[in-house]
Amino acid sequence: MAKKTVDFNRTRIGKLPNNKPVVYKILTEGGKNNYTGIAQRGRVQERIAEHLSNVKDYVPGSKVQIEQMQSIESARGKESRIILRSDPKYNKQGK
Would you say the C-alpha torsion 70, 66, 51, 17 has a positive or negative sign? Predict the structure, then answer.
């Protein structure tokens, strides 16, 4: 499926496609994965924006990378594999 990487700010997030579920990674300046999550179709931009500064679920980062998926179930599976493989700093156990 399609992948896209943009700067982690409200303007750039607002240009991300919203038509399919996605797996997203919030990346550091050096490209390290700080957080991995999923967003449902129609809620991609809103969900990623929930991690910007001055919000409850803030995650520091400089880029966000998305990968569109065919279904929310396939997104959940991919998210689990990425978290197991890369152990992102801001993903909490049992969440």
Answer: negative
CATH code that applies to domain 3-86: 3.40.1440.10
pLDDT computed for residue 17 by the predictor = 95
Contacts of 65 (CB under 8 A, 6+ apart): 3, 4, 5, 24, 25, 27
SS3 81: helix
Residue appearing with tokens 């156990």: 93
**Who contacts 86 (Cβ-Cβ below 8 Å, separation ≥6)?**
33, 36
Residues present in the chain in total: 95
Domain ranges of the chain: 3-86
- Both tokens of 84, joined, read 């197991």
Residue 5: φ, ψ to 5°? -125, 130
- For residue range 46-94, what is the model confidence (pLDDT) as tens digits? 999 999 988 888 999 999 999 999 999 999 999 999 999 999 999 986 5
